[in-house]
Design a protein that fits this description.
- The chain is an all-beta fold.
- The chain has strands spanning 14-16, 22-24, 78-81, 93-99, 103-110, 115-123, 128-130, 146-149, 155-160, 167-170.
- It has a five-stranded antiparallel sheet, with no helix packed on it. A three-stranded antiparallel sheet has the order 8-9-10, with no helix packed on it.
- A hairpin with a 5-residue loop joins β8 (146-149) and β9 (155-160).
- The relative contact order is 0.06.
């Protein structure tokens, strides 16, 4: 209903205005729930949301011809990961964040301590800085545990010799 058909402006539950905007009215905050019997809600265009989107069974992204399938543009862009089955605290978050200096920063957020610690970062030249140890494993006479090169012809390899447990260095 609307005021033009005798109903009050707040008597409708859901309406589409002349610009095809979906407008919900539940007597308080405007909320619209779109439901599908087969689980699919498909649009040929995009969608815009003014707040968070929650997906219970994952998000699938296909296509993507603009250089990024998922693009986050914000003054403090973050992507967070919580393994609610394996993390000691299911509220801890491993965060990937774009930061100043053209860096991609990896951080650990400890919810119980309310602290965030940078674990490593990668700059736009590909240089990486690690806060902790860098470990490389190899157990073969021919497969290196670690290779360091300045270019394709100059560098060194560290091998952990599986036959006697010694390390060898090759140039």
């Amino acid at each position: 209903g609307s005021s033009s058909d005798g109903g009050s402006p707040n008597s409708y539950r859901f309406r589409i205005d002349q610009n095809f905007n979906f407008i919900g009215n539940n007597g308080g905050a405007d909320t619209v729930t779109i439901y599908s019997n087969n689980g699919d809600i498909i649009t040929s265009g995009g969608g815009a949301f003014g707040d968070r989107i929650t997906a219970q069974n994952g998000i699938t992204v296909t296509g993507g011809a603009t250089g990024a399938d998922i693009y986050i543009n914000n003054t403090s862009p973050t992507l967070g990961f919580t393994d609610s089955n394996s993390f000691t605290d299911a509220n801890d978050i491993y965060i990937i964040r774009g930061t100043s200096g053209n860096k991609l920063q990896f951080q650990w957020y400890d919810n119980s301590a309310s602290t965030t610690t940078e674990t490593f970062n990668i700059d736009n030249s590909g240089n990486a800085t690690f806060a902790g140890s860098v470990k490389a494993y190899g157990n073969s006479d021919t497969t290196p545990a670690l290779e360091i090169y300045s270019d394709s012809n100059h560098g060194m390899r560290i091998l952990h010799r599986g036959t006697d447990g010694d390390f060898s260095f090759e140039r």
